[in-house]
């Protein structure tokens, strides 16, 4: 390992990468390396570390650039085309006005930002990944259910990101690159980053935000004059209110999807770093990027209705919506659209990386399988789903995002209540992360999780099912996120008190 003098000479912007390399080598410097670990160490930059916590001696030392690095990482990850797709749903599909959709997007995203900002603070505090920390709140076995749900969540996001990137590459090339080939290109680029792990991920996200922001500024200048800021929302007052709440919930779910991953990217930071600093910087970077892209999507959606040329370009796909925005720029617009594909990879890679970790969290047998194996399996899975569903992107977004919001808000409610009501003054022994006998039993959390799902189901309003409470509202209204939160918040405390009284942990 490098001496302190050598570390001091390392550029702060590269210090995290170097420290992670050192940490991985230290962790593997034993006489019991597996064949995979020995092979991984022979490949420069390939991360071999699994789900085990990062020891204190291998954590980074805080420096003035740490805050900027955290901000830029989340700014880059949140600046994604899928957020523009969600924004366009508000005006293109739900027929909301720009003002209504923008207010819902901003407040929904800020509310969700509170959740991933809060969860990010557990990375430095514990040195553990997000859903390993969940074992201290929900118990060893119930936390596995969250791992499976998060795998499904990120498979869904991987599928949607690949569809967007594939459609865009096809539009840029005038069909010379088919949507299928475009999907495969995006999937392979994501797989490389997810396989090599934190080193290439941190390096990429540190710089990817700049070209992304430039092209978003360009499309704002190009398309902004065509945005319709005056038209009113379509429908009766009751219908408009229902659509406002539905779109608010959709934008909330966009931010909520980051919450089960938030601590994963801070495990190399020391526990001495201020929790408020981590929370505020994470929320600021992530929400700012997501709000920018949501508002652009909302504006592009209004332009299709007011501009006949845009309406002719728009063929029902998000890629055609983006190309309409770049239309007046000609070939330069196509180049900017190609840069936008970068945002797909930078948004897709973090989920793919964490998804492989989630598989290893399912048990000791799973943890023995090298992480790249899961990266390959999941990449093939979401690429295949993207190819099969490439013509139904808007329908998939509208159906999948609420489901993500349901389970995340239920899980997050249990996390917050367990920490604030039952564990706040007791502290945590992070060394028992894999000792099920010393973790909570999880019966209260597991039952409360099911109760929360009951609330989500009776309040959901989707194409495939409408719950009785949602059905009682004229025109229907998706209340799944809100009722899931309410049912869980009420059910968990008494169940946990009973569990502590009877079982004692």
Characteristic terms for this protein:
505 residues; mainly alpha; Hydantoin permease; 72% helix; 0% strand; disordered N terminus; transmembrane helix
Can you describe this structure in just a few lines?
The protein is mainly α and 505 residues long.
How is this structure best described in words?
There is one protein chain. The protein is mainly α. It has one domain (4-502): Hydantoin permease (Orthogonal Bundle). It is built from 23 helices and no strands. The protein has helices spanning 4-9, 12-27, 35-41, 65-78, 81-93, 98-120, 122-126, 130-133, 135-138, 140-172, 179-196, 198-223, 237-256, 275-306, 308-313, 318-325, 331-360, 364-367, 371-388, 393-423, 443-459, 468-471, 480-502. Helix 10 (140-172) packs across helix 11 (179-196). The protein is globular and about 65 Å long. It starts with a helix and ends with a helix.
State the share of residues found in helices, binned by percent: over 70%
| Count of individual domains | 1
Gap between N and C termini, in Å?
Answer: 40 Å
The number of helical runs is 23
Q: How would you characterize the largest beta sheet?
A: none
CATH topology-level name: Hydantoin permease
Radius of gyration: 23 Å
Structural class: mainly alpha
Which architecture does the CATH hierarchy give at level 2? Orthogonal Bundle
* Oligomeric assembly: single chain
The CATH class, by name, is Mainly Alpha
The CATH fourth-level homologous superfamily: Hydantoin permease
Uncertain segments of ≥5 residues (pLDDT<50)? 1-33
Membrane topology: Multi-pass membrane protein
Transmembrane segments: 71-92, 98-119, 145-169, 175-196, 208-225, 245-266, 278-300, 331-349, 369-389, 401-422, 443-460, 472-495
InterPro entries: Pur-cyt_permease (IPR001248), Pur-cyt_permease_Fcy2/21/22 (IPR026030)
Protein name: Purine-cytosine permease
């Amino acid at each position: 390992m490098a001496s302190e003098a050598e570390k001091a000479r390392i550029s702060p912007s590269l210090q995290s990468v170097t420290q992670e390399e050192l940490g991985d080598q230290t962790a593997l410097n034993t006489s019991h390396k597996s064949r995979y670990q020995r092979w991984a160490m022979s490949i420069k930059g390939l991360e071999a570390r699994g789900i085990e916590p990062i020891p204190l001696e291998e954590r980074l030392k805080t420096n003035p650039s740490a805050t900027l690095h955290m901000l830029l990482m989340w700014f880059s990850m949140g600046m994604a085309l899928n957020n523009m797709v969600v924004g366009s749903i508000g005006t293109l599909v739900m027929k909301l006005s720009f003002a209504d959709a923008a207010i819902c997007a901003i407040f929904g995203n800020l509310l969700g930002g509170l959740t991933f900002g809060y969860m990010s603070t557990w990375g430095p505090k514990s040195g553990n990944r997000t859903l390993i920390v969940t074992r201290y709140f929900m118990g060893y076995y119930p936390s596995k259910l969250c791992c499976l749900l998060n795998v499904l969540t990120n498979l869904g996001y991987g599928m949607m990101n690949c569809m967007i990137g594939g459609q865009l590459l096809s539009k840029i090339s005038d069909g010379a690159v088919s949507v299928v080939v475009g999907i495969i290109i995006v999937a392979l680029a994501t797989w490389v980053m997810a396989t090599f792990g934190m080193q290439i991920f941190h390096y990429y996200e540190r710089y990817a935000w700049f070209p992304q922001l430039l092209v978003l500024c360009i499309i704002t200048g190009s398309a902004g004059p065509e945005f319709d800021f005056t038209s009113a929302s379509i429908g009766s007052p009751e219908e408009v209110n229902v659509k406002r709440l539905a779109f608010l919930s959709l934008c909330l779910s966009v931010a909520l999807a980051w919450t089960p991953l938030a601590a994963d990217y801070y495990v190399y930071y020391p526990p001495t770093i201020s929790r408020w600093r981590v929370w505020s910087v994470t929320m600021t970077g992530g929400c700012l990027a997501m709000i920018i892209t949501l508002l652009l999507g909302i504006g592009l959606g209004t332009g299709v209705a007011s501009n006949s040329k845009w309406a002719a370009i728009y063929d029902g796909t998000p890629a055609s919506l983006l190309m309409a925005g770049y239309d007046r720029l000609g070939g330069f617009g196509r180049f900017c659209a190609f840069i936008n594909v970068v945002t797909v990879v930078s948004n897709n890679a973090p989920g793919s990386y964490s998804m492989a970790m989630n598989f290893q969290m399912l048990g000791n047998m799973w943890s023995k399988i090298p992480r790249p194996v899961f990266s390959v399996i999941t990449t093939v899975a979401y690429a295949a789903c993207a190819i099969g569903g490439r013509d139904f992107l808007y329908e998939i977004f509208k159906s999948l995002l609420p489901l993500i919001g349901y389970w995340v808000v239920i899980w997050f409610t249990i996390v917050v209540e367990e920490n604030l009501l039952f564990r706040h003054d007791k502290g945590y022994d992070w060394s028992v992360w894999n000792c099920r006998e010393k973790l909570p039993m999880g019966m209260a959390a597991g039952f409360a999780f099911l109760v929360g799902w009951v609330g989500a189901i009776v309040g959901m309003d989707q194409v495939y099912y409408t719950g009785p409470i949602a059905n009682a509202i004229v025109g229907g209204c998706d209340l799944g996120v809100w009722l899931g939160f309410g049912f869980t918040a009420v059910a968990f405390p008494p169940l946990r008190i009973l569990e502590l009284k009877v079982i004692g942990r």
